[in-house]
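To whoever is on call:

I kicked off a structure prediction for a single chain this morning and the downstream step that reads the tokens threw a length-mismatch warning. I double-checked the sequence; it's 156 residues and nothing unusual in it as far as I can see. Pasting both halves so you can look.
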Amino acid sequence: MKSERSWWRSPWLSIRAQIGLGAIFAAAAVPKILDPPAFAHMIYNYRLLPGSAVNAAALVLPWIEIWVGAALILGFWKRTAAWISGAMLLLFVGALTVNLVRGNPVNCGCFDLHAKDRPKAELLADMRWTIVRDAAILLLVAQVLSVNRKERRIGP
């Protein structure tokens, strides 16, 4: 059991998880920063925010993602950036789940902002896979947080 724990908390794995998580968030942010109106349209399609908040979310969210990505890649404020990334992933999973339950097919808007005409069943299947993918990415968050928690301890 101890070897499993030491593997999970190894600095070797942590740095890779941290950089991978940062790269995911940075890559997701770039298209949103470059095309805020398209991202606002994606947010609107979720039908979760009041119309007056959609544009503000489309302008602010990508900059938070790019900050989180940069912080993780460069290694500063790792724990804070990991917590924010985890909260954002939970928010994304929740938004997708609500729309999946509603039967409202939405393009996730994660990395590609230009919706393609696809059948409802295909979009709903994509939403399920996106939820699974985001849950897997949460494992990276858990790994980064587990190692950085260990680094904060003082003494044996």
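Update from on-call: the warning came from a stale cache, not from the record. Cleared it. Sanity check on the structure: The chain is about 80% helix and 0% strand.
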